[in-house]
Design a protein that fits this description.
Residues 41-208 form the Outer membrane protein beta-barrel domain. It is found in: Cell outer membrane. Residues 1-26 form the signal peptide. It is a single chain. The protein is mostly beta strands. It has a single domain, classed as Beta Barrel (Porin). Helices cover 11% and strands 65% of the residues. The chain has one helix and nine strands, in the order αβββββββββ. The protein has one helix at residues 7-29; strands at 44-55, 67-80, 83-101, 104-122, 125-141, 145-146, 150-163, 168-186, 189-207. Mean pLDDT is 84; it is low at 21-30.
């Protein structure tokens, strides 16, 4: 003899099963939680490229005598809470940015820089300052000759870096380079002067 549940009781159990399992099935098949992309860490090693304006006399990137600067950089950053500290090595072709010298002109041809940087990360944006040493290759023209060739100076500057993804970032940076005691000679005799150089550049970094 078969035992049958009363019709009202069976209907109630069926409704309870459907309402109890429905949300679970929905969660399994449909993810309704909002997506969240964590901010970049601005940490680890990176390599990159940069381009901009180089000047041996003026901070104006459009001044006469400026040249196109192209180069590469590599570095390492470490994250300490919101703070970021790191070091960077950079090499650039300065394109011959020039200025007047006694008896002619001097040109900046190449520059290597070793610099530290420190800043604050604000979500996907890094604001930083930088300072270090710069090694610049000078040459004379128009009757002036440079006695030193490669000359050591110091560098300082600031920049902003914006993360485009978790690995790729775009940066805009200004550098001031002071090269003391550059020696030149010409038909007017020997001279020595301090050179103040400027660079405004944009770049891309790839972190790995």
């Amino acid at each position: 003899m078969r035992t049958q549940l009363p019709i009202p009781l069976a209907a109630g159990l069926l409704a309870l099963a459907v309402t109890g399992c429905g949300p679970a099935w929905a969660e399994d098949y449909y993810d309704t939680s909002p997506s969240y992309a964590p901010p970049p860490s601005f940490s680890g090693s990176y390599v990159g490229v940069h381009a901009g304006a180089a000047s041996a006399k003026s901070a104006n990137p459009f001044a006469k005598g400026n040249s196109l600067q192209l180069g590469l950089q590599t570095g390492y950053d470490m994250r300490l809470g919101p703070a970021v500290i790191g070091a960077e090595v950079e090499g650039s072709n300065l394109g011959g940015a020039e200025r007047q010298a006694r008896g002619g002109k001097i040109r900046e041809k190449w520059r290597a820089a070793l610099k530290g940087r420190a800043g604050i990360a604000l979500d996907r944006t890094l604001l930083y300052g930088t300072a270090g040493f710069a090694f610049t290759k000078f040459e004379g023209t128009g009757g002036a000759r440079v006695r030193d060739g490669w000359k050591t100076g110091y560098l300082m500057g600031a920049g902003v870096e914006q993360a485009l993804s978790d690995r790729v970032s775009f940066k805009l940076e200004y550098n001031y380079v002071r090269t003391p005691g550059l020696k030149t000679r010409s038909s007017f005799g020997h001279a020595k002067e301090d050179i103040g150089s400027h660079a405004l550049k944009a770049g891309l970094n790839y972190r790995f």
